[in-house]
Amino acid sequence: MSARRVVALLRRLVQELHRDRRSMALLFLAPIVLTGLMAYVLRGQLVTPVSAVVVNQAGQPGAAIVGALEGAMRTDGGTVTEAPDRAAADAALRDGTASIAIVVPADFVARLATGNEPSLTVITPGLEPTADSQQVISLQRAIATAVTQALPAAGLHLPRLDAQTLYGTPDSDVVDHLAPVFLGFFAYFFVYILTGISFLRERVGGTLERLLATPVSRGEIVLGYSLGFGLFATIQVLVLLGWTLLDVRVPAIGPLAAFSVGLAVPVAGSAGLAFLVVMLLALGAVSLGILLSTFARTELQVVQFIPLVIVPQALLSGVLFPVSSMPDILQAIARVLPLTYATDGLRQVVIRGADLGYGPLQLDVLVLAAFVAVFAVLASATIRREVV
Amino acid sequence: MQTVAMGLVPAVQAIDLRKSFGELHAVDGVSFELAAGRIYGVLGPNGSGKTTLIRMLTGLGRPTAGEARVLGVQMPSRTNLARIGYMTQSDGIYPELTAAENARFFGAMYGIRDPDAAEAALAVVELSDRAGALASQLSGGLRRRLSLACALVHRPPVLFLDEPTVGVDPALRAQFWAYFHELARDGTTIVVSSHVMDEADRCDELLFMRAGRVIAQGSGGELRARAGTSDLEQAFLQFSAQGPAA
Ligand SMILES: Nc1ncnc2c1ncn2[C@@H]1O[C@H](COP(=O)(O)OP(=O)(O)OP(=O)(O)O)[C@@H](O)[C@H]1O
Ligand SMILES: [Mg+2]
Known about the structure:
The complex is a heterodimer of chains A (388) and B (246). Chain A is built from 14 helices and seven strands.
């Protein structure tokens, strides 16, 4: 063990890192920026005011409760409308005029008065679990206020909320909601890494120089890369999609307990449409990888773009936190991120079961296609013959 | 092309070419006209601007001032690149592809349809028996040969070779030169950079470069006579001391 050699190694690392200003800056800046962003997203969550639609099946006594509920929600900035039946309430949820529906069952008031397990049915859209639960929490507060107001004696027996969702199956869990979105995110992420590093190698390995000494055009290079990595992306997306939807139950064999293979996520819409959305995203990632490799000199620097470019997208594009409850500035940023549209598109297809006739999904697909085109143009602009 | 062959238009032309990197003038006002079917040696020490000059001639480097023309066409010109072969100083081949795959790939980039072109190019550099080997597993000299094959695959009328013989063993080096002369006889214009003076006599004409300028141009014999020495190395030093060529 030679202290001199160890010190020489240490010094070399300091010298290298010292010259690589960007890695240095990243070491300190990235965690601050990322935690700052995360804090902003989490603390800035504006709970969208509840716009509830109420179906009162409990007649006159129920009306008193509904009246109190309306009062309580109005003070919280929410709105309440009434619907004659469950179908009308569902329709209001579907077209977005209501964010939550409440059904007051016929025996509700009687059960409430006697403390006999009163329960209300609460229906949320089920597209974004986080946004839904925020709505339910607001509603719970309003219900507590309303019940103690209308029936002061019943204060101790708060009603149970029987939560249902408009889309998805009643037993759909958090994986069912997150898996489709993560599918898009991972495809985006891995295709970006693959293309970025591969194109960087082309740049630093001297082959791009050589390539540009041939009559090949920039458009041909970008198209060739898009097709090549598009092929890998296709395979990857097919495998991922298959894994997400797969539900193979292996029965117990001897001492082995039964288990299942695959995530068994139910798809309300067409798997082909989900594939289209993810593929558009992945093609955008090919161009993004080429684009960002311009700003990197080493593979390390390509990886450095992950906390700078990829992680913020995961925070802002609705993968984890609903875009609708973010502060305005962040919502504006979210609206220019391709991942936002892919996330929404995947939710629309997988959970809502939307098809291409549905306006919001059309928008998602169009915007994603536009991103592919714009990124491809930007990427080919970075492939310059006369670099220096 | 026709006029080039008849010698009306120089095969390669530099008109007061300049390239600066900030304060550093890597190429500092270079003008010349190179005739078709001859081998030109660009000689100069490390950092004298050889690679920078060749990159501008191939249209890969943007001149700070001046003009580069190849076969009468101002560079950069994408279509003109089909008539130019460029062997870069670093190998610039794909390590994960085999020798044959590399040659075929560059052939395709140059728009070559002939399926035998790649094999022919490999044969020239005597790599046929290693055609199936991964480029990353070839020795340094063999990679140099492959790099040359990739520059020749489309049989271009103008070839720029940036230190093609570095790391190549003497026997093959002799063969390389014999082949270059064969190409030149068929009308190919070849610009070779080197800092090995003993290769200089294999060129038809020499351009001595120093600090971004051409300090002398002429055949080996002429330059020796002008410097009054039988040693090219000596001649170079003498021209260096005199400054830029008249
Ligand atoms: N991209 C660049 N940025 C800054 N300086 C550069 C760049 N490329 C070349 N130079 C400088 O320009 C000068 C000429 O370099 P060039 O590579 O043309 O020399 P060369 O004659 O090919 O040398 P060698 O025999 O070592 O290959 C050198 O001083 C080099 O440092
Ligand atoms: Mg050089």
